Amino acid sequence: QAYVTYSNIAALTHLAAKPAWEITGTLDDIKIWTHEEGDVLSLKVEMQVKIPSHLAFSLLSDFTFRQQWDKHFLTCEVLQAVNEDEKIYYVTSPPMTGHKPRDFVILVSQRQPCKPSEPYAVAVKSVTLTSMPPSPEYCRSEILCAGFQIYSDSNSSCTVCYFNQVTSGVMPYLAANLTGSSKSIEDTALECIKFLE
Question: What is the pTM of this model?
Answer without folding.
Answer: 0.88
